[in-house]
Amino acid sequence: MKIPAFKAVLFDMDGVITDTMPYHFRAWRKVFGAHGLKVSKFDVYRREGQKGTKSIQEIFAQAGILLTPEMAGRIIAEKELLFKKILRQRFIPGSRTLVSRLSRRGLRLALVTGTSRHEVEHTLPKGLLSLFQATITGSDVRLGKPDPEPYLKALKALKINAREAVVIENAPFGIMSAKAAGITCYAVTTSLPKEYLGQADKVFKNMKSLTDVLIKEVNV
After folding, report:
1. CATH for 8-19+91-217?
2. Among 113, 136, 141, 176, which is most buried by a count of CB atoms within 10 Å?
3. How far are the Cα atoms of 4, 46, 78 from residue 85, in angstroms, in the given order?
4. What is the CATH number of domain 21-86?
5. What residue ranges do the domains of the chain occupy?
6. What b/e readout covers 141-169, taking b as 16+ CB neighbours within 10 angstroms?
7. Residue 139 phi/psi, 5° resolution?
8. How far is Cα 153 from Cα 135, in angstroms, rounded to an integer?
C-alpha cells in the first residue's frame, strides 16, 4: 500500500491544538443560561467549527425562538467576552511539538478554525501562530464548517490542491468540511468519542498516535 506524501497539514484549533473546549462550553452554558436555555456539552462539542451565530440561532430555534442575525450577533459578543475572561492557556499534549516538527520539515501549515480572529490572536502565542503560513478563522468566511469554504480558502492561500493536504480535526462538522473540500482528514478523540468521528479517514486516540503516523507520511 502506497504511503501518502502530504505537502501540507491543515489544523483545526480548539480541541486539536488548544485544550479550550471546556472553556468554550462554560462560556456557552452561562450565556445561554442568561437567556433561559440549557445546553449540554454535546450540544456545544458537536457544533465545534460552526460559526457562532449559526449555533446560537440553531439552539434558540430548538427552543422555539427565532433570532435575527443582529440578535445572534449580540449574543456571540457576550460569549466571546466571557470566554476571554475565563480562558486559561492550555494545549492538547503533543500538539505544539507536532506543529514545530512539521514546520522544521518544511511542510506548509494552515490553521482553520471557526473561532473569530481576535479570539485566535488572544488564545495562541505569537510564536506558535507564526508557524502557520495561512490562518482562516470564523471571521474570514461567509459559511463556516461543515461547509467546505474554510478549507477551500486554506488550500487557495497555501497554493496547493486537495490531494497534497491532510486535515487534523476533532469534531464532526470539521470532518465534514474537510471531506467536502476533497481533503484527507484525520481525527483525534480529544473532545468526542470515536463513534462521532466516523467520516474521518483515520481516527486516533491521542496526538502521539497521530504524530507517529503523520511524521512517516510527510517524510516519504
Report:
1. 3.40.50.1000
2. 113
3. 42, 23, 11
4. 1.10.150.240
5. 8-19+91-217, 21-86
6. beebbbbbbbbbbbbebbebebebbbbbb
7. -80, -15
8. 9
**Residue 116 is placed in which grid cell?**
473569530
pLDDT, one tens digit for every residue, the chain (220 residues): 455 679 999 999 999 999 999 999 999 999 999 999 999 999 999 888 888 888 999 999 999 999 998 999 999 999 989 998 998 889 999 999 999 999 999 999 999 999 889 889 988 999 999 999 999 998 999 998 999 999 999 999 999 999 999 999 999 999 999 999 999 999 999 999 999 999 999 999 999 999 999 998 886 5
Choose among 134, 192, 129, 205: nearest CA to 165. Answer: 134
pLDDT value for 124: 93
Question: Dihedrals φ, ψ of 91, to 5°?
Answer: -125, 150
Which residue's C-alpha cell is 500500500?
1
Residue type at 153? K
Pseudo-torsion of CA 39, 45, 50, 56, nearest 10°?
Answer: 10
Residue 50 grid coordinates: 460552526
Sign of CA dihedral 35, 36, 40, 42: negative
Q: Alpha-carbon distance 44 to 66, whole Å?
A: 19
Q: pTM to 2 decimals? A: 0.89
Element (H, E) at 53: helix 52-62
